[in-house]
Specification:
By secondary structure, the chain is an alpha/beta fold. The chain is 49% helix and 11% strand. The chain has two domains: 170 residues, 3-Layer(aba) Sandwich (Rossmann fold), CATH 3.40.50; 206 residues, Dehydroquinate synthase-like, alpha domain (Up-down Bundle).
Length: 393
């Protein structure tokens, strides 16, 4: 087994009405002045925001609200939150919503004690030494941000979407109630299912030796999502299915499914530029580029893709021609994404075929303007990235 360090300190409180414990939990962590950060009107209409603020007030905490988070959360709102926290001497952040709200809260948490611009962290100009504590009440099973060290933010100027990882922004706790997912539209649910699978696949298809326990955990998680994801789309109030998917979302991104592996993350980098330029849903963007990426790189490790086909999809392993099993596994994954309503091409994602100049712009941005290559299983430079975008049409 390869060497690894596993650090996942987030306390998870899972079950019905978990959100009502917000006040007591924050108080136990020393919080007193709390910023509740959320997205649009759904948390208000559902009564969730009222339940959360009531819990905070019952615990004797002072509560401030900052809504307006959008998918592919904007740096400008995070900057607004940073100023609010400084002005009101806020000492704890509570994100209520999907991964975007949680990622935005993490960005705020990083920015409050930092003297420079918080964007510095996302473009690797600085390294944080402090951050406000964050907690989360997720309303979407997708990003796994409620237990991860990751934050992704979009700078509107230049349409640049960038991610940052640091232990300082792991949530102190997360309150996970599967019933909060009941009202999600089918498309959002499917985007979340795709994101969960991709967080696992990005770790699974990466260089490294054999970590059999890690691989089996990843394969079991993928099979669980494949089983219950379509149920959530068709039966939105199926508590068992929502529970399985919600828990899978957290496990897929707390590093458990990739211990001993470096990860690839090329598909995420390809999607980040799509999200930045076109403001598409993250899961949908991943579904649109992953099949093209997989077909482009699969010969780097045919046996890995063949194992995926056999152990996840139940495809008989062709020992003499593993490329056939590998190809079938990619096709099955693509059909699964399509079956839950996800686009599997850029044309399907955008509703039109992007022009070559757009693909070139995506490519240049993906290389950070010629300063990097992406991927682990296969290093992808400007030409390779362009060819993948092109084959994804």
């Amino acid at each position: 087994m390869n060497s690894f360090t596993f650090y996942s300190p987030t306390k998870v409180i899972f079950g019905r009405e978990a959100e009502k414990q917000a006040g007591e939990e924050i108080r136990s962590w020393g919080g007193s002045r709390v910023l509740v950060h959320f997205g649009g009107g759904s948390v208000r209409r559902s009564g969730l925001l009222d339940r959360v603020t009531a819990s905070l007030e019952a615990a004797g905490l002072t509560c401030f609200l900052l809504g307006g988070v959008v998918p592919n959360p904007h740096l400008s709102l995070a900057r607004e939150g940073i100023e609010l926290c400084r002005r009101e001497k806020i000492d704890f952040l509570l994100a209520v919503g999907g991964g975007s709200a949680i990622d935005s809260a993490k960005c705020i948490a990083l920015g409050v004690p930092y003297e420079g611009d918080v964007w510095d962290f996302y473009v690797r100009k600085a390294e944080p030494t402090a951050a406000l504590p964050v907690a989360a009440i997720p309303t979407l099973a997708a990003a796994g941000s409620e237990t991860s060290s990751s934050s992704v933010i979009t700078k509107e100027e230049g349409a640049l979407k960038r991610g940052f990882n640091h232990a300082l922004i792991r949530p102190r706790f997360t309150l996970m109630n599967p019933e909060l997912l009941y009202t999600l539209p089918a498309y959002q649910t499917a985007c979340g299912v795709t994101d969960i699978m991709m967080h696992t696949l990005e770790r699974y298809f990466s260089p490294g030796g054999e970590n059999e326990m890690t691989d089996r955990i990843a394969e079991a998680l993928l099979r669980t999502v494949i089983q219950y994801g379509p149920v959530c789309v068709k039966e939105p109030e199926n508590y068992q299915a929502r529970s399985e998917i919600m828990w899978a979302g957290s496990l897929s991104h707390n590093h458990l499914t990739g211990l001993g592996r470096d990860g690839d993350w090329a598909a995420h980098q390809l999607e980040h530029e799509l999200g930045g330029m076109y403001d598409v849903a993250h899961g949908a963007g991943l579904a649109a580029v992953w099949p093209a990426w997989a077909r482009y790189v699969c010969r780097q490790d045919l046996l890995r893709f063949a194992r995926f086909g056999a152990n996840v999809w139940g495809i008989p392993l062709n020992y003499e021609h593993p490329e056939e099993t590998a190809s079938a596994a990619i096709a099955r994954t693509e059909r699964f994404f399509a079956s839950i309503g996800m686009p599997v091409t850029l044309t399907g994602l955008l509703g039109r075929t992007p022009e070559e100049k757009e693909l070139r712009e995506l490519t240049v941005k993906c290389t950070f303007f010629g300063t990097r290559k992406i991927g682990g299983l296969m290093k992808l430079g400007e030409q390779e990235i362009f060819e993948i975008y092109q084959s994804a049409l």
